[in-house]
Backbone:
């Protein structure tokens, strides 16, 4: 009996060592990726657009994995999520911005945009979550794929942008490390992009995006919040980046958007009605609404709340979701909470500001009876 147990232990150890050896030999590229998603869904909005309500709805399906920001004022529930908005592609200096430097011959712009991208990537990497060690590895490989060469340069001018941080006495910035200044070894470089077309760049970027998204642990439908810019639809161009995906754009009555911004004291939204109108128009809402593309659908927040059954059926048909998988209905999207965000402008004290918005953004006002 004793010898039998001893043999079982040794056999177990032998199998563990064999598996470790196989992993070492074949490494990550030959292993099945963590993610098993088949369809990618992107949700976008325009600042307090109510897109979170659609995220709530999609969370109620047992074959979706939702990565996004939840506002309990809209949702009515509190839930721990893997991450908020996935920003590395659309942020300033992000993946999409690099494309704009391809046609420039001067190294100043090319060098700076590469460093700005690395700086943004490092920021998210330090935040953790989906921005794992694998993300950082893929990011550096991506930079190697688009850079022709780099040369050491200890006196690179980009550091001027960060002198304020270096001189700061604030504890957060005392030991700041940025690709704009140096890497962890104290090295600085000037980067030169390869000579390539924008289509060639998008192909390389697509490989990077696909590899990154495969690190997400996901079910059949992978849902990403605000992963695309909201200023231009550019669906065909984004298809070159992401491959096949479906985009749902959510927009809301600008009067309620304006009031929500004021009530929340948002510093990124204008609190003056004239500036708000300019801000709203620059967000590109009209271009999204007028664009007709089989991969995109526009949804009014008000219709989603007030005509919920009709609108959800349209969304499900568009995405290919099956009602049989809607097994958590009512657990996340709570109409009694969301409906409180419809018609906020009616109780706003300065109705002259509301009137100005009505007159200047009449195309976006929700005209149905509330």
Residues:
């Amino acid at each position: 009996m004793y010898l039998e147990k001893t043999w079982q232990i040794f056999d177990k150890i032998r199998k563990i060592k064999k598996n470790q050896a196989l992993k070492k030999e074949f490494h990550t590229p030959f292993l099945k990726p963590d993610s098993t998603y088949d369809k990618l869904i992107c949700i976008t909005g325009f600042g307090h657009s109510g897109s979170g309500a659609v995220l709530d709805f999609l969370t109620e399906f047992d074959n979706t994995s939702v990565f996004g920001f939840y506002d309990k004022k809209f949702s009515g529930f509190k839930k721990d999520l893997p991450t908020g908005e996935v920003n590395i592609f659309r942020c300033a200096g992000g993946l999409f911005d690099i494309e704009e430097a391809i046609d420039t011959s001067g190294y100043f712009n090319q060098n700076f945009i590469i460093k700005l991208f690395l700086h943004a990537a490092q920021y998210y990497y330090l935040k953790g979550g989906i921005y794992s060690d694998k993300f950082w590895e893929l990011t550096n490989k991506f930079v190697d794929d688009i850079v022709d060469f780099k040369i050491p340069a200890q006196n690179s001018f980009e550091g001027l942008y960060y002198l304020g941080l270096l001189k700061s006495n604030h504890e957060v910035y005392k030991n700041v490390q940025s690709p704009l200044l140096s890497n962890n070894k104290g090295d600085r470089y000037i980067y030169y992009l390869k000579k390539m077309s924008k289509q060639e760049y998008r192909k390389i970027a697509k490989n990077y995006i696909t590899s990154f998204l495969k690190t997400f642990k996901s079910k059949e439908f992978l849902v990403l919040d605000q992963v695309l810019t909201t200023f231009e639809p550019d669906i065909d161009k984004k298809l070159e980046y992401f491959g096949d995906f479906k985009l749902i754009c959510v927009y809301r009555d600008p009067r309620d958007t304006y009031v929500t911004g004021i009530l929340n004291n948002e510093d990124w939204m204008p609190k003056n009605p004239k500036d708000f109108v300019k801000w709203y128009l620059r967000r590109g809402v009209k271009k999204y609404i007028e664009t007709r593309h089989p991969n995109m659908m526009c949804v009014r927040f008000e219709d989603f709340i007030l005509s919920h059954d009709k609108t959800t059926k349209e969304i499900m048909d568009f995405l290919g979701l099956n009602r049989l998988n809607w097994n958590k209905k009512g657990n996340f999207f709570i109409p009694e909470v969301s409906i409180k965000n419809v018609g906020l402008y009616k109780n706003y004290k300065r109705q002259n500001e509301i009137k100005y918005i009505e007159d200047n953004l009449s195309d976006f006002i929700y005209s149905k009876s509330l």
